[in-house]
Structure formats: C-alpha cells, structure tokens
Design brief:
Signal recognition particle alu RNA binding heterodimer, srp9/1, 2 domains, about 45% helix, alpha/beta, about 20% strand, 4 helices, single chain
Length: about 150
C-alpha cells in the first residue's frame, strides 16, 4: 500500500500555522521516514521532485530538518529499524554527481582557455575596426542600412 504524501512546502506552511498535531520518525530498515498528522489526516513527507517518501540515513538529520521548519517535538517508531539492512542505492544521485563533475571540469577548461587568450600578446582587433568589418559584411549580404 502506498502512503499518502505531503510536500515540503505544504508541511512548512502547516508547521508555521501550528496545524501539525504530531510528527513521528518511523524506521524503514536502516532509514527513517517522517510521518505527520494534521487535522484527521496522516501523511508521509515526499522527497523533492518525486512522489516517493523522503528517507533519512540518520535520525539526527531528520531532527535537524524538523527544527528548521519549526517542529521541535516528535515521536519515534523504531519497531522496523534494522541497522544491518543495506542503504538505499541512489543511481539518480550518482548520475547527477557525475554530470556535476563533468560540468565543473568543462568550466575549468573553458576558463583556462579564456585566460590564455586574455594573457596572450596575440593580435587584438580594436572594437571600431571589428564593427566596421561587421557593417561592411552586413551591407554586402543584405544591402545598405536604411536611413
């Protein structure tokens, strides 16, 4: 059975309004989920950008999250806690990290090349000369500039 979810934004607004009646850290293997009750409704906090439950590897990280949104008291349910259960694999994060490293490497390379050009005593074309050439080329391709 899939749990009903609540987004971070909605939970933050409910917490600010004082509408959250109870928050509980619930163990799922070696990870922790956040279950909140407001009104007569119970929801599990969703991970950002997905409809899957948000899971924390460490209970103190979940406590820090709750403190940041203004919830200072919560219950824990460790009945299903199994510290020996392997952690959740995150191939999506692995791919995102790989792409971030590639982007950083490209950025480093690009900045290095720009700096080489700026530092080189090579031939620089004065702005006025470059613009005169562009004007001449445009005139050749599309005709004289309208008055």
């Amino acid at each position: 059975m899939t749990a009903e979810i609540i987004t971070h934004t909605t939970l933050r607004e409910l917490a600010a309004a004082g509408a959250v009646r109870e928050a509980a850290a619930v163990a799922r293997g070696s990870r922790w989920e956040l279950v909140v009750r407001y009104g007569g409704i119970e929801r599990v906090l969703a991970a950002r950008k997905t409809k899957q439950p948000r899971r924390w590897a460490h209970l103190d990280s979940l406590a820090r999250y709750l403190a940041e949104i203004g919830i200072r008291q919560f219950a824990t349910d460790a009945r299903d806690y199994d510290p020996d259960q392997p952690g959740q694999k995150r191939p999506d994060r692995s791919e995102a990290l790989r792409q971030a490293h590639e982007a950083a490497e490209y950025d480093r390379w690009f900045r290095e090349k720009v700096q080489e050009v700026l530092d080189s005593p090579g031939q620089a074309i004065p702005h006025a000369e470059a613009m005169a050439w562009v004007e001449k080329e445009l005139e050749r391709r599309i005709g004289p500039r309208p008055e």
